[in-house]
Each structure stands twice: as C-alpha cells, then as structure tokens.
Amino acid sequence: MRKPRLAPTTYTSYQDIMVRYLYPTFGEKELDEITPLDVELFLGGLLEAGLAPGTVKRIYSVFRSSMTKASKLGLIRANPTGGDKIDPLPRGRREIEVYTAADVQRILKALQGEEIRWRCYGRVALDSGARRGELVGLQWRDLDGCICHIRRAAYKLPKQPAATKPPKSGKARSVHLTQETAVLLAQLRREQRKSCLKAGTGWNMHCFVFGTLGVMLHPTTPTKWWRGFLQRNDLPCRPLHALRHTSATLLLSNGVDIKTVSARLGHSSLEVTQLYLHLIGDADRHAAEVMEGIL
User: Fold this and answer.
1) Which residues of 127-152 are buried (b: 16+ CB within 10 A; e: fewer)?
2) pLDDT tens, 258-281?
3) How many Cβ atoms sit within 10 Å of the Cβ of residue 211?
C-alpha cells in the first residue's frame, strides 16, 4: 500500500527485509497470534546472529509499521509492538569515516593524474558534499557558473535500467562550488562536447556531466573507480561516501554554522548533521593530547 509514497530503492529495501527476515519468522502465523514475546525473541535472535544494532532497528521499524497499519485497519485486536511492550533496542553508534585535511591534500594531488571526468568528480564530491546518486544524476543544465543545482539522484533496481528520482530529502537544493571546481567543470564540458562530436552523437544541456558521451553512468561506476583510485595512489581506504562526510566535517571544524552545512548536504533535519559534531570533538581531544606531549 505504501509503494506510491516511497522512493523505488526504499521500497525495494523494505521488500528485502520482508523476504529475508519477517516472512521466515512470522509468515506461518496469523497476525493475531503474534505476541510481544515473539517480537522480543525475534529481535534478540537477530542481535545474537551478529546483525548490527542499526540493521536490527531498520528491520524492526518495517515490522512495527506493518503491525501498526494492521491495527488501524482492524486486522488485529492488539498491536504486539504498540506502547512500551517492546524494550528499546541498543543504540549502536553510527560510524562515520572521514579523511583528514592532510589526506584531502593528498587526494587532490593524486586526482591530477586522473582523466578529466574523474578529476572533476572527486573535486565536486568534496566541494559540494553531494551524494553519489546526486552527482551521477547531474546534468549540464544544473550548473550555472559556481552554482550547482541538485535536482535529482540516479538509482538502479535489479533487472531494470538506471533511472532518476528526486533527491533523498525530496527537495532540490543549490550549492555554491569553488571557482577552481567551476573552471575544471568548464574544461570537462568542452572535452565532452568534443567527444560527442567525434563519435557523431548529439550533445545538449540535458547530457549528464559525468556520463560517457553524455549518457548517464551506472550509479555504482564511481564507487568502482574510487576503489581503484585509492589503490593506485596508496591512499587510506575509505568508502566513496566518506568524501561527503569529509566535506561536512571540514566545514564545521572551520566555523561554518550547522544550519548552513545541513542545508548544503540536503539533510532532512539538523539532528542528522549533528552526527558529525562528535568527530570534531574527538579531533579536538586528540589535539589536546598532542599539545600535552609537546608541553
């Protein structure tokens, strides 16, 4: 029932949770037969099996939502997940991987040896803090000098062609890029137009910025490039998404207010952006330890 209101990738992930975790445990039971004890045992089993607390919370969220809907529709007399029947799940600290300022300098230097497309991709990722899908879905009409309008995100479902959807927050946003990044993008645009002309394919402002001959990349292609880039240049192994986290922490640690950073990243609330604040605190404590050793 919720499919029209969910992003395609979110709906697919909910389906996966239902098939992998909920159906095997509760599929043979009548809804009214499920008790709070059944739910407690189910969640405890997931944790004992080694699933991360965050993963278990997502599974439980889908299950609780289903049971709440069933209760509203009158399909069950009592919701086994309602009220305070289920003990709170342990809160696992969300691990955020970032690069240091020194690492960023090494990355930027190493990017000079990459083809223009990936040189641009790396700089825009660090500069804007945009998500991978948002960068893959970026078109030339979204760029206006130093302003980057993030209006869509690329995604790929199994056995279906890659497509685009609105950004994760559901809202478009505009991000100012550095002058150096804008100049590099202008160079990429010239190179892409030349490549399209040479290949005999058309080029227009709807072409995708990081696409091959302007055609949108598979959403996972930047991740594959990033892994190879790190290996070739002996750089610290972090996921591609670490560039987004790094962009946020560098801005916050250099005095940019949290509201501005939150809007820049397209977060749904300030609480999401606050996850980065503990990293700044950890770095500050480390700096104090270093200073203590010096003094």
Assistant:
1) bbbbbbbbbbbbbbebbeebebebbb
2) 888 888 988 877 776 777 776 665
3) 18
Alpha-carbon distance 291 to 100, whole Å? 18
The rounded radius of gyration (Å) of the Cα atoms in the chain is 23
The CA-atom distances, in angstroms, between 208 and each of 86, 141, 142, 164 are: 48, 9, 10, 12
Q: Are 134 and 152 in contact (CB under 8 A)?
A: yes
Structure tokens at 63: 């299950």
CATH topology of domain 101-238: hpI Integrase; Chain A (1.10.443)
Region(s) of the chain under CATH 1.10.443.10: 101-238
Classify residue 243 by its DSSP letter: H
* Alpha carbons 53 and 201: distance in angstroms, whole number: 50
Q: Are 47 and 64 in contact (CB under 8 A)?
A: no
Give the C-alpha distances (Å, rounded to integers) separating 81 from 20, 44, 65, 77, 256: 20, 14, 9, 12, 41
**Token pair of 65, please?**
């939502």
What is the tens place of the pLDDT at every residue in 155-193?
888 778 888 999 887 889 999 999 999 999 999 999 999
For 290, the token pair is 């270093």
